[in-house]
């Protein structure tokens, strides 16, 4: 099948749909038993699950260090991970354009299977719709994810207090710059790969330290600034960030300077922001730095109070400005 | 907001995304608490869950008796229901085209909220991506669903045996004909509404009878024929259907005769196929017929053996032909 193209017939629910499902998806995701039912039937322990969804419209589909399949798995694994869950099961909903090469679809599906394996996650249910040529840029993927929240480890945003450390697990904005470069737009020329990766293995290490983690979020669409503003507003915390402490690679700084963007709004796809009890910050930092993904982790700020939710950015010279959600849009779009 | 159009800025993760999320989605789905986290955190009992996903690309978005939002909720509720689960939680992933009227989006989201309520299902997590004008026909919706499989009620396809009854909960193909009519293509003129509805309330009634249900499936894309072939092949059952016993409305028969289609391949979106122990068939039929959705339910065939999975269609004159999955496609496409 791999020399072929996806056709509208593949979306009709008949013999060709069945063949595509079996040869491309079931063989790679290994959910032969589940695919006999309209829904996968799965064991969970009593307690709480985490449930999330994200649709991926990455353009181009293949970026240095990342493709839409890898991103679709990592993105949802990460949403579960930062919500305090152990990622367990994913669903995958594909919308595929007529004429899309089956070979490219296989590359994408292989990347999904490989990325899922890193976190011990199973892709247990899927769906495929085929749409007309020239509409969606090849393929759109939705993933939804179920994780299990272990009662012995949970996040406690309500316990956030003055002095808590704000940690970021590594340099921000790599994904945004890699996408800009892959588009060949605006003269961005760089070999910087996207940071796209699954955060669960790294966060598992942090959890094993027993540190009191108040909250986590991954700074994707909207960047670090938006992630921090959301934490501040949703849980009534005043956060102060030291501008100089935020890790940013020279390539990202360079692109932002030339194009007039603020890297605080640039998406990462393999970074976590952690709010951690003051006393536990050193061991969290150490645990992060012992992993490949977290080796450039840094404390970037503190919780300075509760009440009105806001984020302040303190410059090297000591001046403070309020950080807001992204207003309007940064061009070009990268989601 | 309702006089406005969706713009690319609504997809950037910033202030406008936040506003769209809050005013259109959170206010209607009522998941304010869950939306503070990257994943909703939900209680489940110990045991098994059902997990499924489906992406909806309905065109046009509004059809007699159905819109893409109602369909997106009913479709996933139905996949959970026929898998033996009590539907509990849904996620909703929207891809919206630049320029799409917020008013239409609100109509769609209202339909989703109303449909979810019929089964007591909560929409607890969502995502929105905005794509360029003129690409996806307005909006594409993915829903994933989690249901809980009650241990005291389960399906047992392995127990299928000769004599088991095959029941369909009502006339087939209404949805396909309603979509054809809404497209104004091929001269199909009819007021027949889509049968789009959530099956859970009806199936709950059937379950309360305590009948031994072997298996259920909803005959959507690919129609009744494909649903039966999948059951036969997946669980090694020989199924014989009485052609005259399959309920089909005159409007659907008429469209198929004129256009040369086979209604057995026409999608329904509010019907269930049930395989039921022979002795329990009468009370299942009675329970179905006591509901509005199931009042035209009928026994359409029997399991005639185990082993090679196949479906036979017996005509009024007693001849038998083998029923296959849809080969190629029926034009026009209706998914």
UniProtKB/TrEMBL annotation, chains A, B:
One of its GO terms (biological process) is protein maturation. Residues 161-313 form the PurM-like C-terminal domain. InterPro entries: HypE, PurM-like_C_dom, PurM-like_C_sf, PurM-like_N, PurM-like_N_sf. Residues 38-149 form the PurM-like N-terminal domain. Pfam families: AIRS, AIRS_C. Transmembrane segments: none annotated. It comes from the Bacteria. PANTHER family: CARBAMOYL DEHYDRATASE HYPE (PTHR30303:SF0), HYDROGENASE ISOENZYMES FORMATION PROTEIN HYPE (PTHR30303). Belongs to the HypE family. NCBIfam families: hypE. This is Hydrogenase expression/formation protein HypE. It comes from Hydrogenibacillus schlegelii. The lineage of its organism: Bacteria, Bacillati, Bacillota, Bacilli, Bacillales.
């Amino acid at each position: 099948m791999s020399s072929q193209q996806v056709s509208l017939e593949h979306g009709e629910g008949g013999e060709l749909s069945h063949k595509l499902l079996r040869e491309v998806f079931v063989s790679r995701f290994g959910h032969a038993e589940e695919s006999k039912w309209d829904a996968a039937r799965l064991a969970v322990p009593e307690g709480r699950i985490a449930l999330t969804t994200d649709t991926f419209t990455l353009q181009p589909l293949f970026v240095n260090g990342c493709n839409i399949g890898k991103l679709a798995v990592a993105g949802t694994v990460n949403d579960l991970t930062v919500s305090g869950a152990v990622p367990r099961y994913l669903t995958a909903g594909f919308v595929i354009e007529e004429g899309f090469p089956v070979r490219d679809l296989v590359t994408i599906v292989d990347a999904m299977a490989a990325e899922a394996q890193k976190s011990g996650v199973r892709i247990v249910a899927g769906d495929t719709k085929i749409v007309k040529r020239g509409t969606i840029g090849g393929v759109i993927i939705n993933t939804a994810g179920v994780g299990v929240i272990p009662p012995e480890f949970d996040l406690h945003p309500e316990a956030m207090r003055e002095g808590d450390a704000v940690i970021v697990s590594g340099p921000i904005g790599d994904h945004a710059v890699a996408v800009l470069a892959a588009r060949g737009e605006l003269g961005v020329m760089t070999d910087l790969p996207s940071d796209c990766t699954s955060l669960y293995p790294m966060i598992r290490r942090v959890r094993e330290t027993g540190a009191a983690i108040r909250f986590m979020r991954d700074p994707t669409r909207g960047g670090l600034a938006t992630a921090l503003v959301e934490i501040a507003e949703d849980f009534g915390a005043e956060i102060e960030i030291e501008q100089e402490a935020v890790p940013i690679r020279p390539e990202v700084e360079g692109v932002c300077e030339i194009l007039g963007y603020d890297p605080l709004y640039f998406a990462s796809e393999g970074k976590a922001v952690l709010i951690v009890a003051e006393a536990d910050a050193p061991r969290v930092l150490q645990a992060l730095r012992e992993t490949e993904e977290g080796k450039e982790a840094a404390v970037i700020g503190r919780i300075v109070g509760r009440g009105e939710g806001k984020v302040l950015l303190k410059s090297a010279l000591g001046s403070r400005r309020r950080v807001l959600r992204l207003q309007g849009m940064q061009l070009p779009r990268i989601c």
